[in-house]
């Protein structure tokens, strides 16, 4: 069944896309490919497309899932140089894809959307935007908003580090004007970004102090190179590329089993990874029992994201590198003191301390139906429908929103599924002459009940009622299954002028409950 391309009177909706990273580019392309819609605008805060792949330029930044999973299924990249590629190659791919589909013509670069407010009388979203370079500002009306700014937008910088008087920056805001050569450098954080940075800069600096209270499980990366023969086969023998990408898609998706509590279907998978991480530590640190103990996690496997690296453990053995497991207690000038009494004078401090997703939705940024400040109304417990639709926010679609965080797969796979859900919803609006679609609260509550129940089978921590339900409970394949149908009966709808809204749903209301999940 094809998609409707316009309303019955031949007009098309105006659509605003927030962000020109993986999500925004995907949304813009699919609006063109699937609906032949060109009545959209993309608002991008940065000076170019790419999102987090544009902003994160720290040394060693690279993909942490097989590179071909970072290319869209509808826009393959046959020329990636390795299985795990540097940031520059992912960014080059996104730029090239945006140019191929003429997305740049629709993008307002260096333009920040400072607020989004629903106008009930006009049935439109009013977006207030500001040009960061000139200060110019204005309003933009949109029938539909696709919010693709993502969760990796605002760095998390703990306030206690404000006391540091040397050069300091977050990994996502790398200061390339400062030369690290011969400097005393500290890196706070030993998750994926921290490990990549430490492994890359150690040979350039005089000393490197690594602060990480909780080590992560590390497995071998085995970063193979794709030579010209492989690239030729990928490009010209299409079934080879399709087979190769499909294999990695489902192999990576199967690693969700690591995040299930010990059960018959996950026990073997977890046992294998436990052994691989132990063997990796032993082979790379065979004669250093003290260091091996320092890098051995004391928590359950996969409670934090597993990191792939062949360089981190050898780096820690270098004479100018020191790993600190005890917490930082005092920061004074350029001196950092840990609980054990160790004091280190530093010239530069790098914070690999993650991101603050709540800052994506500050007070007054997102005002929905009835003047509801949606994010403020959430508090610490966001309420969405599969991380995509939100009550009080008609005609609004989040891409990679709360409740569907994934840690085992490339985000591109999830993003494509959410974008296609938004495409199906927009097509339904066009076909049925619908002015507004708003997810029902009861549908959201049913989803959250299922989330709370299913998440208990995993090792993710969920906070029922008072705490944040951040993660998707299952595989990306299961997410596809849940999102492949629109289920228009789960939405409140209003028709355009002269249309009876009660007649807009597909057929009679089903006798069953409007939303029913099965395990």
Characteristics:
519 residues; alpha/beta; FAD/NAD(P)-binding domain; 2 domains; five-stranded parallel sheet; 13 helices; globular
Structure description:
With 519 residues, the protein is an alpha/beta fold. Helix 1 (22-35) runs parallel beside helix 11, helix 5 (228-236) packs across helix 6 (238-254) and helix 11 (411-432) runs parallel beside helix 13. It has 13 helices and 21 strands. The protein has helices at residues 22-35, 52-55, 87-100, 192-201, 228-236, 238-254, 264-284, 289-294, 312-316, 374-378, 411-432, 441-455, 476-483; strands spanning 15-18, 40-43, 107-108, 111-119, 124-131, 137-142, 144-147, 167-170, 184-188, 207-211, 218-219, 307-308, 321-324, 328-332, 335-338, 343-345, 348-351, 366-367, 396-398, 434-439, 491-495. The strands form six sheets. Strands 3-2-1-7-19 form a five-stranded parallel sheet, covered by helices on one side. It folds into two domains: 15-154 and 356-503, FAD/NAD(P)-binding domain, CATH 3.50.50; 159-224 and 232-351, 3-Layer(bba) Sandwich (FAD/NAD(P)-binding domain).
């Amino acid at each position: 069944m094809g998609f409707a391309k316009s309303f019955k009177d031949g007009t098309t909706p105006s659509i605003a896309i927030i962000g020109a990273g993986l999500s925004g580019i995907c949304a813009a392309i699919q609006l063109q490919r699937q609906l032949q819609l060109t009545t959209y605008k993309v608002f991008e805060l940065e000076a170019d497309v790419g999102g987090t792949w544009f902003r994160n330029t720290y040394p060693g930044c690279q993909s942490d899932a097989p590179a071909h999973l970072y290319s869209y299924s509808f826009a393959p990249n046959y020329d990636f140089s390795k299985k795990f590629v540097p940031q520059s190659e992912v960014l080059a791919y996104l730029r090239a894809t945006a140019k191929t589909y003429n997305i740049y013509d629709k993008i307002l670069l260096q333009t920040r959307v400072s607020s989004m407010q629903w106008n009930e009388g006009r049935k439109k979203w009013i977006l207030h935007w500001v040009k960061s370079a000139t200060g110019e500002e204005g309003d933009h009306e949109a029938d539909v908003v696709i919010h693709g700014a993502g969760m990796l937008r605002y760095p998390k910088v703990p306030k206690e580090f404000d006391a540091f008087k040397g050069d300091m920056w977050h990994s996502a805001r790398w200061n390339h004007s400062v030369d690290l050569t011969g400097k005393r450098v500290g890196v706070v954080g030993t998750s994926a970004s921290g490990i990549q940075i430490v492994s890359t800069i150690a040979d350039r600096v005089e000393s490197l102090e690594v602060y990480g209270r909780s080590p992560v499980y590390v497995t071998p990366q085995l970063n193979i190179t794709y030579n010209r023969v492989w690239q030729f086969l990928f490009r010209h023998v299409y079934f080879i590329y399709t087979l190769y990408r499909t294999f990695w898609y489902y192999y990576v998706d199967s690693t969700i089993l690591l995040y299930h509590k010990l059960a018959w279907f996950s026990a073997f998978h977890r046992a294998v990874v436990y052994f691989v991480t132990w063997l990796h530590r032993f082979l790379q640190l065979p004669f250093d029992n003290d260091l091996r103990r320092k890098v051995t996690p004391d928590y359950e496997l996969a409670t934090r994201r597993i990191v792939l690296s062949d360089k981190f453990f050898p780096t820690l053995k270098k004479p100018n590198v020191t790993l600190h497991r005890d917490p930082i207690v005092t920061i004074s000038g350029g001196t950092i003191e840990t609980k054990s009494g160790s004091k280190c004078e530093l010239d530069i401090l790098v914070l690999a301390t993650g991101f603050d997703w709540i800052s994506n939705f500050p007070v007054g940024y997102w005002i929905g139906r009835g003047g509801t400040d949606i994010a403020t109304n959430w508090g610490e417990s966001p309420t969405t429908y599969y991380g995509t639709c939100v009550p009080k926010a008609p005609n609004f679609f989040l891409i990679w929103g709360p409740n569907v965080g994934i840690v085992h797969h490339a985000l591109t796979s999830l993003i494509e599924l959410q974008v296609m859900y938004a495409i199906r919803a927009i097509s339904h609006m066009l076909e049925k002459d619908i002015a507004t679609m708003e997810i029902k609260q009861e549908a959201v509550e049913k989803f959250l009940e299922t989330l709370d129940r299913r998440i208990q089978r995993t090792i993710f921590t969920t906070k029922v009622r008072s705490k944040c339900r951040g993660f998707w409970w299952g595989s990306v394949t299961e997410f596809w299954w849940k999102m492949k149908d629109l289920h228009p009966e789960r939405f409140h709808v209003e028709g355009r002028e002269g249309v009876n809204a009660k007649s807009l749903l597909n057929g009679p209301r089903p006798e069953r409950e409007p939303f029913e999940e099965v395990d």
